[in-house]
Specification:
mainly alpha; 86 residues; single chain
Length: 86
Amino acid sequence: MSSPPGPASGLPQEPSNPGSSGSPSPRQLIGFGAGIVGFVVFGLVVGWAADRAFGTSPVLIMVGLGLGVIGAVWSMITQVRKFMKD
């Protein structure tokens, strides 16, 4: 039977909240970047599809891009605030 990692087992104990020292972990940074790219790409794809459907090129792709950038900035602000609280 093995005991959980910790001081008694001689193995280093992992923090219960990784990245709680105020700096994000590499995994959180990758998720952060993927979220920003996702917002922008989603806005572009929806705008492009709407332009094709309504024949309004390039109006709705620009609107989609703008909304994607706004979403990305909003995501960035909320993530930075979360890291600043910790």
